[in-house]
Amino acid sequence: MKKLYISVITLSLMMMVFGTITYAWITISTVNNIEGLSLSASTGDELQISLDGFNFSQTLDSQTLESLIESQHLSDVTTDDGFEFYTGGLRALGSAYPNQDYLSFELWFRTDRKQRNVYLVNNVSDQASYDVSIEGTYVVSRGVSWTSNLTFLNGMQASDIIYSGQEDTYYAKNAVRIGFSELLDEPYDQRELYQLNHFIFDPSNDPIRGYGKSYGAYNYFINMTNQNLSLPTDVPNTIYELSRPLEDNPYVSNNQNSLVANLQPTGLYNQEGQEVYQAKVMINIWIEGWDADAFDAVLKDFIKIQLQFRSMNS
Questions:
Q1: Number of independent structural domains in the chain
Q2: Cα 293 from chain centre
Q3: What is the 3-state secondary structure (H, E, C) of the chain?
């Protein structure tokens, strides 16, 4: 079974206050072997984070997080909706399991300010590098050198042919997907299920090499095995561009593409009499088995992921 074994070296949730704008970062570094995990959170007054919905603080116990992802590894899996995962793609169809085949965790956001919507923002994947950390959302990887043992089509053009014996560098970052699913935070959240936010984000910003393409890993697999494997006909609803603040108003989003959560009233109040708003979110991170770049070679790559959140009004 093809697997990408990971070690989450650092998963840090950090908040930075800039005026009354709140940013949050989640940073995940993964390598082949499991070596542990550490997490810290520091927040401004505008936004707080919790792993259980009850204990909100600026610092989170790293030992608790380590127990959540003990023996964690990533397989190449697939999903139609970001909720149900399977070991499909170019392998036999079967059930995939959270924190066995893909990374999955829950977060709670809470605020007592007027900016009550949380967005994923600032995709800088095309600017970031593996060895240098910068501000923003990104997925980067070190890359793996691989020599193809046969000739296959790796793109839409004749010039995209990879010949047998040709050596190139392939990147796991191009096959990563991140799913955000808002969950009912009972008893505070009284919305219907259809009102909850969810989306799949492809940080590569390259829909041409996205889900279920006839070239790339699929074409290599067909030429390698001589199997008659049909491409999927239903494509998951995936976004490639993130929301951003308006130029003339940094507290308002230009669209709702990457709206992660609408914080809901709790009936609880701070010392100044301001009501506290809260929401619950599940985050899933996986290697998409139907991606054009999901070659066996990339499952040996080293990946770093950073997510940046911003509270804005819609």
A1: 1
A2: 17
A3: CCEEECCCCCEEEEEEEECCEEEEEEEEEECCCCCCCCCCEECCCCCEEECCCCCCECCCCHHHHHHHCCCCEEEEEEECCCCCEECCCCCCCCECCECCCEEEEEEEEEECCCCCEEEEECECCCCCECCECCCCEEEEECCEEEECCCCEECCCCHHHEECCCCEEEECHHHHEEEEEEEECCCCCCCCCHHHCCEEEECCCCCHHHCECCCCCHHHHHHHHHCCCCCCCCCCCCEECCCECEECCEEEEECCCCCEEEECEEEEEECCCCCEEEEEEEEEEEEEECCECCCCHHHHHCCEEEEEEEEEEEC
- 246-289 pLDDT, tens per residue? 999 988 999 999 999 999 999 999 999 999 999 999 989 899 99
Give the separation between CA 49 and CA 12, rounded to whole angstroms: 11
DSSP 137: B
The residue range of the domain holding 89 is: 3-312
**C-alpha–C-alpha distance, residues 193 and 63, integer Å:** 33
Query: What is the Cα–Cα distance from 2 to 87, expressed in whole angstroms?
Result: 10
Per residue in 194-223, pLDDT tens? Answer: 999 999 999 999 999 999 999 999 999 999
More confident residue, 142 or 93: 142
pLDDT single digits (tens) 3-28: 554 444 344 444 333 334 445 555 55
pTM, rounded to two decimals: 0.86
What pLDDT score does 203 carry?
A: 94
